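Take one record.
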Amino acid sequence: MNDDELRKVPTFRRGYRFQFEPAQGCHVLLYPEGMIKLNESAALILEQVDGQQSVGQLIDALAERFPEAPGLRQDVTEFLEVARGRHWIELR
């Protein structure tokens, strides 16, 4: 992601909803045709997607929460690119 994209705000695409699913024992992303089970890292990133904070702010919040995580910025941006490519999120 370039600097301009780090200033953009990620939002879930219309029809997608992030939530914890007790029956699955994990966070999921629900959409009209189904459900995506998320691993812990994906859930930690997507729980920051609130339609208010930019990608850069999201990364800063995670870095503050997990200061010992090496390569966090790259991991988060790569995941968000995958999520955007799969049409789970949009950058506004």
